[in-house]
Structure formats: C-alpha cells, structure tokens
UniProtKB/TrEMBL annotation:
The keyword Metal-binding applies. Belongs to the PEP-utilizing enzyme family. The keyword tRNA processing does not apply. The lineage of its organism: Bacteria, Bacillati, Actinomycetota, Actinomycetes, Micrococcales. One of its GO terms (biological process) is phosphoenolpyruvate-dependent sugar phosphotransferase system. Pfam families: PEP-utilisers_N, PEP-utilizers, PEP-utilizers_C. It comes from Aquiluna borgnonia. InterPro entries: PEP-util_enz_mobile_dom (IPR008279), PEP-utilizing_PTS_enzyme (IPR050499), PEP_util_C (IPR000121), PEP_util_CS (IPR023151), Phosphohistidine_dom_sf (IPR036637), PTS_EIN (IPR008731), PtsI_HPr-bd_sf (IPR036618), Pyrv/PenolPyrv_kinase-like_dom (IPR015813). Residues 17-115 form the Phosphotransferase system enzyme I N-terminal domain. Residues 151-213 form the PEP-utilising enzyme mobile domain. Residues 243-504 form the PEP-utilising enzyme C-terminal domain. Its cofactor is Mg(2+). Keywords: Kinase, Magnesium, Metal-binding, Pyruvate, Transferase. GO terms for molecular function: kinase activity; metal ion binding. This is Phosphoenolpyruvate-protein phosphotransferase.
Amino acid sequence: MEVLSGLGVGLNAVRAEVFRVKPQAALPAAAKHAGDAAAEKLTLRNAISAVSAHLAELSEKAGETSAEIFEALTMLLEDEDLFDTAAAEIEAGWNAGTAFIAAVDSLEEIFAGDDAFMERLVDLKDLAKRVAAHIAGVSLGLDLPSSGRFVIVGEDFSPADTAQFTDAVVGVITIKGGPTSHTAIICRSKSIPAVVSCAQAEGLLDGMEVLVDPVGDRVVVGGDDTMITKAISFVAKSLDPIIPVRANIGSLEDSIQAATTAANGVGLFRTELLYLSENTVPSRQKQTKAYTEILSAAPEGPIVVRTIDAGSDKPVPFLHMPHEENPALGIRGYRLITDHRDFLVDQLVSLEAARVASGREVWVMAPMIATAQEALDFAELARSSGSYKVGIMVETPSIAMALGDLSGKLDFISVGTNDLSQYLFAADRMNAGLGALLNPWQPALIRMLAKIAQDSEAAGVSSGVCGESASDPAFAVVLAGLGFKSVSASRSQVGAVRSALSSVTLEQAQQVAKVALSSNNAENCKAAVLDALAKIAQE
Ligand code: PEP
Ligand code: MG
C-alpha cells in the first residue's frame, strides 16, 4: 500500500476515487492561416455567434443589472467595425483567432483615457480569448466533476478555481500549495478533507481509490477506514473558552454557516473574496447590499471586517493590477491606497451604511500594514468614514517591531500568521517546497508572536490571531497562553478550537506556551505541546 506524505487540512478523513484535474488549456500561439481568407472570416463569424449565444444564456440566468452588462458586451463583441479590423488582419495573413485578439487589443490605444470603456475592454479581451479558444477547440474552463464523489488532484487551485468546487468534490489533493495557500483555506472552511503540498501525488491516476487522511498528513492509496489517524480530542472542563473564538468568513454562505457554530462573532471577513471574478468596480450601493446581508447573517458578537486585500495570490480583475516580478512583495493590501484610494473610501463608506442598516458591532482593519505611519493614516481614514473600532493586521515583521508606536491610536490588532510566516521566513506561501518553513510550530514564529502579544498589551491595544494557525486547536491554546485576547478560526474548526480552549485554564495555557517557547525546532515543539496538553487532560 502506497503512502504519500503532505500537509493535512481538516480533522476528517475521506475515501473516494481520484479525479485528475487537467491544467487549463493554453491558447494556441499567434499564427498565420493556410491561405483561404474567406474561409477564415467565416470561421470568425461563426465563433463570434457561438460566444454571443453563450453570453445570452448567461444573461438569462443573471439578474437585471448583470443582464444589462451582458447586453452591452454582446454589442461590443458583434460590432461590425471590430469585425472589419479583424478581417484586415486576416487579409494580412493572420488566422481568425489571432486576428480577433489583435483587433480587440488595438482598441486599447484608440480608447486610452476613456476609463468607462477601459473597464469594458477587460471583459471584451476575455471574450476575444473565448472566441479564439472556440476556434481552436480548447476549453478555458476548469474541468471539474459535477456528480458522483471524487477526490480531485491538481497542481494547486486558485481562489477562482475553488469557487467552482461542486458537491462532487469530497476531497482535495494538491501537488503544490502550502498550509496557508488558498486551497487550504477554502477546504478548511468548506470542511473538505485535503492534503496539500503532496509532491508524490503526481503519480495518482483517474480511478484509483485513495484515503485522504489529513490528521496523519498523508494520502494512502487503496487505504481503508481502519487507517484513519485520529485527532487528539479535548474534553471541555468549562462552558466558555478562556478567550473568545471567532470565525473567519469570505461570503454570505460562510456567514450563514458560521452562525450555526458557537463562534463569538467574526474575526476575519476577507472582503476581497467577494470580488475575485468582478471585472467592474462594484458600486457603493452594491457593496452596501452585500455587506448588510453578510453582517446581518453573522454569528452574534463583533464582526471584524478587513478592507480589500487584493494582489499577489488574490487578483481582483477590476483593480487592473500591473504585472510585478515579486507580487507578494509588491502592491497588495493597504498599499492599494496609492492607486485605488477611491475604492478604499467606497468600501469604508459602504461598510458604515451596512453597519447602520444591520445594527451590528463592526470593527475594521487594513491588511499588509508595514509601518506605524500607514497604520495611523488608515486609522484616520477609517475613523472619518464610520463609527467602528479600528485596527490593523500584523502580517509583516516591520509592523511587529513598531507596535509600541501605536499606543492610544488603534483599538486592536489581528495577526495574520499566514503572511507573517511568509515574510518572517522569506518563504513564498505558494511554494510547496517551502511548506516546512510555513509550519506555525516554527519556534521563531512563536517567539515573534510572544513579542506581538506583549507589546500590544503594553500599548493598550487588544490583540488577536486570525491566520490559519489559530484553526489548530493545540496551537490556539499556545496563542491564549502567549497573551492573545481572541482567536479566529476557519468555521469548520470553531468547535474543535473552542473545546481545546475550554479544556484548560489560562494558567495552564501559559504553561503550555512556555513549553512551546523553549523548543528549538518545529517537530519537537508540536510534540512537546501535545504532550503537555495530554498531561493536563489527566490532571
Ligand atoms: C494571514 O495572512 O494570515 C491572513 C489571515 O490573511 P490571508 O490569508 O487572507 O492573506
Ligand atoms: Mg494575509
């Protein structure tokens, strides 16, 4: 029996057949046609009609507002001048697909400066690719199973890919992607058992039966239920956990689901996840509606909303972010303020309207803050936009070293351990080969967390943790012992994290944190903490 090791996500195992997800087909390179320009033009006409017909289908399913956008797009796609420009390219020898993409690209120069048209052009470029794909007979969509029960296996899945997971996806294995990749985050929140960063999964083939065993950090080919690794179980000794456990959400569905758990409010609402496939800037009205629904549905307690964290692994189409050599070190999170201040203001204003409409307690925070000055600027902007508690995420080592400067200026901080690990260890969170450095049990991360908790306390700023590390029940006990005042976990983990934090006293959690702080490597650290927790359970 073959055992493949990786990094487990979740506490439940699943057994099902493998479904290999093929990499999305690439468009063929620009090419000339064989000489028959008339036939090529006919091919182009037919492909445009086919894509228009598909748009009409989508338009019927969409609401009234979106239907108008689809109609406008269809008009642009079927525009005769555009066809003539493409026809001229065909006369010059280019094949139909290449000619149409070139014709649409030429609009960029003609309409430069017309912002409204530029927004439409992004959609039109996407449609041009669909026309070319239709001609080449390739599919640009992700090929996922729609019925049955499958463990899907792929390189890694982008946030847009994971949004397409159907109920037929009962387990996920990725060859790349680390413990903090978006595949891991989404699987944890949807309670889909997963093993990520599993390089040996390259050899898995359609139809093989596999056991996805996340607690054992492994996949067993042909494995059965007797091989499932059991998670350590905590026995709650008090009704309430020693610190509040909130839930992480990214959509209305998440919010509704989180309300069915015992979560004390929401500790991280990732607003960018609403906009990963939006090509046009959502209006204040549209944002207010979405936020009001999500706030109203959320579990009782405060709701911590993060302003847009676009860029790097979370592209948001309407922000038209430039290509960067090192996107994780580039323009992302709060740094969008330079080019997209209007959007940030729109978001804060819409959120204030949603706060009033829902009657909920809202806290707002900005992601990827690197300096105290950025934190102060954000606090000023947020306080001038609404009546919420204001905070920042601590995700960069630089801000972790500057918390003393925030005394009296901020209400709270929330540590994003996913990015903090990435920047502390200089280890790309998307790089499967670096998963070990992104392990939250790394002593250097735990020592930095201890400093953050202490410095926040000294500055009179409340501190919490909302990165994936807080979804690990044993790690959550360490966080409470280090001095954090709340944790926020993936909604599927709220129950387990609450049990762990109800099974110890604060003093016991502090002893456990001491054990973690005295370790000098990740494996020993986790083992020593689990050992200490097992002893406490017997007391
Ligand atoms: C983090 O970095 O830990 C975090 C919570 O933010 P995200 O995973 O969305 O980058
Ligand atoms: Mg982050």
